[in-house]
Structures are given as C-alpha cells and as structure tokens.
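Project standup — Tuesday

K.O.: blocked on the structure for the chain from last sprint. Re-posting the sequence here as requested.
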Amino acid sequence: MSNMRRRYRIIFLFFGSMATVILVLLAIFYQPDIPVDALKTRYALSPSQFTLVHGMSTHFRDEGSQTDSIPLVLLHGTSSSLLTWDACAKAWKNKHRIVRMDLPGFGLTGPHPNNDYSIDAYVDFLEKFLRDRNISQCYLAGNSLGGLIAYTYAARFPFQVKKLILIDAAGYPIEHAKGSLAFKLGKIPVIKNLLTVITPSSIVRKSLEDAYGNTSLVTDALVEQYRDMACREGNREALLQRLQTDQKGDTTIVSQLNQPTLILWGEQDQLIPVANAYKFQRDVPQDTLVVFSGVGHVPMEERPEQVAPVVLHFLNHFSWTE
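H.V.: unblocked you, prediction finished:
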C-alpha cells in the first residue's frame, strides 16, 4: 500500500511540476496574436497589394515591367513570407516582372479557411492566384516548401512553367539533418500547444541561426520581422497544423519535369542537407546545379549578391542548346 501511495505521490509531483513550468512560461513569454491590420502598417507598404484567393485576403507584390508577359513568380518556405525575397527582387525587377505572395498559413495572408495545408491545396491556391492575375505562363522559383510546391505545380501544369528554379527544395526524404528548433518543439505534445501563445525571441533567433550558414547575419531586425509574422493572428495554429500534415513530396514526378531547371543549394544547409541537391540533379532531366559555399537554407536571403546574378543568367541566357 505504501508503494502505491509513493507512486501516486511521484505522479502528483511530476504533473504539479509540469503545471508550474507551464505557468511560468506563460507568465514570462505569453504573446497574444497580433492583428493583421497592425502588421499591415509596417509590412504592407507599397508595392504590397491584397487579392481574394479561395476566401483568403492574400498579400502579394507585383513589381517590375508590367509588359513582361512571362513574370518570375517566387514562393517562400515554411514560417517565412514574401519578404525573404526582398534583396533579390530588388536586383531582378529591373529586368523582369517579379510576382511574389505570402502563402496560406504564413505572412499577412494568414490561415487557410479550411485548414488545408496539403501540397495539393497549395498548388490549387497558386493556380487560382496566377489565373486571377492573368498569368498564363511564368518562370517559377521556390525555396524549401516553396520548391516542393513549385516542382509539383510544374509537373501538373507543364505548359504554364517555362523555367523552374529550386532553392534548397523540400520533397526527398531528409537524412542526417540537424533540423530547426522551432520545428522540433512543434512536434512535442503539450509543448506544441504552448507555441500557439508563446513565441520567445530566443527561439525565433535560434531557428534563424539554424537556417543560416553565417549566423552573424541574423540581426535583431530580422528576428523581429520573423516573430511578427509568426504571431500574425492564426499563423501559429496554422503552423502546428501544417507540421502535422504529410508534407512528403511525390518525387516520382521529378523525372517527368520537362522545363529547364536551375537547382541552387546552400552547402551548409542544416534543414535539408546538400545531399538532397544531388538527388534532384540525378532525377531532373534538364538541370544545372549551383552550390553556394558557407551558405545555409535560404541562399536568396543570406547571399542575394551571389544568387541574383546566377538566376538572371539562367533566365536571360541559359538554354539547352548552349
């Protein structure tokens, strides 16, 4: 009987300690959702626009020459936003029309009304967005999750994608990766639910440092930007739902891609190791691969001065007859 009481006491102490930890975390790090209208005053200045896509007020930017009939469309990755392309878009818009948007569940666009974060839902969203913008053909670039969406879209609508750019793209199984702290926490019971109401800057900073090769480039302003976007009303719940959704890509379609494809990768990517770049290179019929030394998961954000000219050359000069 005494052993049973001892067990109950241990269980009681354990759950009591857990409850205390949770209350302390809430007291220190509680962060309510930030209303989207408050964020618009800072992050939706010109040339930002909004358009309704599948019931979502979708944040996008359409820059450069509007007479360019084949724009470059940019897709960001998980927990990111169209802002990840800022430096490269600035370099590209003098040569091309540049279109980018906040994908459902992220940035100022916010949650999908049906909580559908499957790849098919993202592809359907992209098709509706492009159709509404009267874009019948484009160059399509995507980073991480955006890369998975991009090549899935290109396989499904081959005549609508003239050239494809995959930057540290998701899709293939990931092996021997360090991973992101935020993503790891988002899969732990109890802790993951706490992440809907607490978003410490320290976790945001560590997650960004996991994504960068050169961690000195992770500034206070960058941490604040990512934290603001994470706390946009509904985005934290959307991220947890997306992390529970099967995001494995159908890599059998990679060998069916018929577009000229540029594969860019950061050699120091800790989230999707550079080994996966060579899997794409192996399977894509028409491709060229560029690996950036000392760079992490978001080369276009970390080293835009290297990424921008490579992409411009690919768009303006590269052909398979060279």
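K.O.: great, moving the ticket to review. The first strand starts at residue 48 and ends at 53. The first helix runs from residue 2 to 29.
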